[in-house]
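Handout, page 2. Input:
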Amino acid sequence: MRRKEVRPLLLLLTAAACLLLMGGCKENVVQEETRAPATVSPALIQQAAPAATAPRPTPTPAPSPPPVPASTIPTTGRTAYLTFDDGPSDHTDRILDILKQDDVRATFFVNGNATPEGIRLYRRIAAEGHAIGNHTYSHSYARIYASVQAYKADTEKLNDLLERAVGFRPDMLRFPGGSNNRLADKAGGKGIMRRIIGSMEAEGYSYVDWNVSSTDAAQAVQPTAEIVGAVLGSSRGKRQIIVLMHDAAGKTTTVEALPAIIDGLKNQGFRFDKLSRHSFAFRFADARTGATPP
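Output:
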């Protein structure tokens, strides 16, 4: 074969070889691009990933403060206990009318009145929601303070009457003249009041005096303005008051003063209530010794 014919043939074979080599390279590149990514070990992923943030705790509400015992809760209210001694009489109806009109409850320390009118008034007092206390049947200092036995007998006589009239026997007393009166000594000797008080308490009775006087017993007929002024003036500065008044026969100005007394006490911030064994109970003996009344 001639040399001139061989050179073109070699060039042709060289070109073909190059084409074959380029095709193989291209196939290798495609295979690398389409190959699935290598699987990485989960342990390696966990090591590489940032540490997970710990969950935040649920907020716990602040505990509620313990309830305040009732005995430590400050009491800001003011209470007035209106009391009427020595009835019932022809003035009792008018007093009850005024109390009903003003929706006020009061306490009546009554004496003995076995007449039909007296029985009716006892029943009206009880029916209209007022309290009834025992002020002895006779209210005679010479009789009731002669001895412990005399006082008991007079008290029980009234309770017998009240049980027939209103169906109960009051266990709350007010001593005529108060628990510190000196007239009792003339009837029963020195110390008679102390002995009577001890005996009646042993029998289950409680007693109540007063810390505001209307002065309506200072004279037969005390001027209306004097009664109103005495009650309103003595009530200032007190949180609980027990007001002494009388519904005995002849106490006309007490009836006249009552509406102004109720209005004046309301203006001072008082509410009204009736006495009981469990209510405020002012006693002169407690006041002398500085003891807190029950």
